[in-house]
């Protein structure tokens, strides 16, 4: 079975073609600047050179047609015809309370996702456009929606309800939803496998640390709490997002800086986080380099980030009544030994003992805690595309 995994952004399209017989990626690629002059497709066959196709692609449908043509090209393609694609797995950001699991896409599902546009106005529209474009270009091919929010739908009500008038939840769905669910689910399952344990016997804290960052409490294989909330703005300090702040700051800064709603939204989402603290960059590599050269604000930004992650780990250990493993994943979590060490520093009381020599590793699965550490610390590169493909296979095979 070959599954085509699609992730549509507002002007981009990421894809992978995965052979589920061996779970190997046969081809992957990215289309950028859809609907903008300078459209480009970067296609990478597994056993070939990267191919760059520069041609204006006004819509996602044209972009997908170019991708499918690339997959079938006699020189750099990996399939002979469309019949080799057995199913399509779509990454969708927000399903609200509609779906707690991945689902086969039909008209009812698409309409439900359109009903969630208010909750994810930047992400759901292009996700839906990608689904509809695939349906037009690949009629009859089964399609599955895999949602960033679905994994967190197992949170108990006391974990997702805000202390606002309850009517706001009933009328508008104002509650914590959480994001990065596909990543948290994948690495939690891999952690259980690495530890040779049944996931239902484990209490795991998964740390998806990148420009966007979130922490999740996974108890018996289910998400029981997560740091992101109604939107991805809540939780940790991130690359450019402020994370948790006193809500009264919003009104105070709007008045002092003469900002309208769009202005304060832009400030909290695009100008804050470690960028706002450091004044250097939203890229942690740049911030680490500046800190090493003595930039005090850059050093402070790293300390704030590590402290926030550490605090959530402690909170989730309390929420779950203990902790068996901490998992680091995503760009920063996978590649920064110093950040992993900083986060774990101070968690010795929980039984966390990181091994500095083992921790000197990047981008590959590893156990980085000491042999006698009560709580295991794991580095697991995330693979959201494979998780989407697995969910798609399981639903199509039923």
From TrEMBL:
<feature type="coiled-coil region">
    <location>
        <begin position="347"/>
        <end position="374"/>
    </location>
</feature>
<feature type="binding site">
    <location>
        <position position="14"/>
    </location>
    <ligand>
        <name>ATP</name>
    </ligand>
</feature>
<comment type="similarity">
    <text>Belongs to the acetokinase family.</text>
</comment>
<feature type="active site" description="Proton donor/acceptor">
    <location>
        <position position="148"/>
    </location>
</feature>
<feature type="binding site">
    <location>
        <begin position="331"/>
        <end position="335"/>
    </location>
    <ligand>
        <name>ATP</name>
    </ligand>
</feature>
<feature type="binding site">
    <location>
        <begin position="283"/>
        <end position="285"/>
    </location>
    <ligand>
        <name>ATP</name>
    </ligand>
</feature>
<feature type="site" description="Transition state stabilizer">
    <location>
        <position position="241"/>
    </location>
</feature>
<feature type="binding site">
    <location>
        <begin position="208"/>
        <end position="212"/>
    </location>
    <ligand>
        <name>ATP</name>
    </ligand>
</feature>
<keyword id="KW-0418">Kinase</keyword>
<dbReference type="InterPro" id="IPR023865">
    <property type="entry name" value="Aliphatic_acid_kinase_CS"/>
</dbReference>
<keyword id="KW-0067">ATP-binding</keyword>
<keyword id="KW-0808">Transferase</keyword>
<comment type="subunit">
    <text>Homodimer.</text>
</comment>
<comment type="pathway">
    <text>Metabolic intermediate biosynthesis; acetyl-CoA biosynthesis; acetyl-CoA from acetate: step 1/2.</text>
</comment>
<dbReference type="GO" id="GO:0016301">
    <property type="term" value="F:kinase activity"/>
</dbReference>
<dbReference type="InterPro" id="IPR000890">
    <property type="entry name" value="Aliphatic_acid_kin_short-chain"/>
</dbReference>
<keyword id="KW-0547">Nucleotide-binding</keyword>
<dbReference type="InterPro" id="IPR043129">
    <property type="entry name" value="ATPase_NBD"/>
</dbReference>
<keyword id="KW-0460">Magnesium</keyword>
<comment type="function">
    <text>Catalyzes the formation of acetyl phosphate from acetate and ATP. Can also catalyze the reverse reaction.</text>
</comment>
<feature type="binding site">
    <location>
        <position position="7"/>
    </location>
    <ligand>
        <name>Mg(2+)</name>
    </ligand>
</feature>
<keyword id="KW-0963">Cytoplasm</keyword>
<feature type="binding site">
    <location>
        <position position="91"/>
    </location>
    <ligand>
        <name>substrate</name>
    </ligand>
</feature>
<feature type="site" description="Transition state stabilizer">
    <location>
        <position position="180"/>
    </location>
</feature>
<dbReference type="Pfam" id="PF00871">
    <property type="entry name" value="Acetate_kinase"/>
</dbReference>
<dbReference type="InterPro" id="IPR004372">
    <property type="entry name" value="Ac/propionate_kinase"/>
</dbReference>
<keyword id="KW-0479">Metal-binding</keyword>
<feature type="binding site">
    <location>
        <position position="384"/>
    </location>
    <ligand>
        <name>Mg(2+)</name>
    </ligand>
</feature>
<keyword id="KW-0175">Coiled coil</keyword>
<protein>
    <recommendedName>
        <fullName>Acetate kinase</fullName>
        <ecNumber>2.7.2.1</ecNumber>
    </recommendedName>
</protein>
């Amino acid at each position: 079975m070959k599954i085509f995994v699609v992730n549509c952004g507002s002007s981009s399209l990421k894809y992978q073609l995965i052979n589920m017989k061996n779970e190997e990626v046969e081809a992957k690629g990215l289309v950028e600047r859809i609907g903008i002059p300078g459209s480009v497709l970067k296609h990478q066959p597994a056993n070939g050179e990267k191919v760059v196709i520069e041609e204006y692609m006004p819509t996602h449908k044209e972009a997908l047609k170019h991708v499918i043509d690339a997959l079938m090209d006699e020189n750099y393609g990996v399939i002979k015809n469309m019949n080799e694609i057995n199913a399509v797995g779509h990454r969708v950001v927000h399903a609200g309370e509609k779906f707690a699991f991945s689902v086969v896409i039909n008209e009812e599902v698409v309409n439900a996702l359109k009903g969630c546009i208010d909750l994810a106005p930047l992400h759901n529209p292009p996700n839906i456009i990608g689904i509809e474009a695939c349906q037009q270009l690949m009629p009859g091919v089964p399609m599955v929606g895999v949602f960033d929010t679905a994994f967190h739908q197992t949170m108990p009500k006391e974990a997702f309800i805000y202390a606002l008038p309850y009517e706001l939840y009933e009328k508008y769905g104002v509650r914590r939803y959480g994001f990065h669910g596909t990543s948290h689910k994948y690495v939690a399952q891999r952690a259980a496998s690495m530890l040779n344990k049944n996931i239902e016997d484990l209490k795991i804290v998964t740390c998806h640390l990148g420009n966007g960052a979130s922490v999740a409490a996974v108890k018996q294989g289910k998400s029981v709490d997560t740091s992101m909330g109604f939107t991805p703005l809540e939780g940790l300090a991130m690359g450019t997002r402020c994370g948790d702040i006193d809500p009264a700051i919003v009104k105070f800064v709007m008045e002092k800086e003469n900002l309208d709603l769009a202005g304060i939204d832009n400030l909290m989402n695009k100008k804050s986080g470690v960028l706002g603290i450091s004044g250097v960059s939203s890229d942690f590599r740049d911030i680490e380099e500046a800190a090493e050269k003595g930039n005090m604000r850059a050093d402070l930004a790293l300390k704030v980030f590590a402290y926030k992650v550490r605090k959530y780990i402690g909170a989730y250990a309390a929420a779950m009544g203990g902790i068996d493993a901490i998992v680091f994943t995503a760009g920063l979590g996978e590649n920064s030994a110093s950040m992993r060490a900083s986060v774990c520093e101070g968690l010795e009381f929980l039984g966390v003992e990181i091994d500095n020599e083992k921790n000197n590793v990047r981008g590959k699965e590893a156990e980085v805690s000491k042999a006698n550490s009560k709580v295991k610390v794991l580095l697991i590169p995330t693979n959201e595309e494979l998780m989407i493909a697995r969910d798609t296979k399981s639903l199509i095979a039923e």
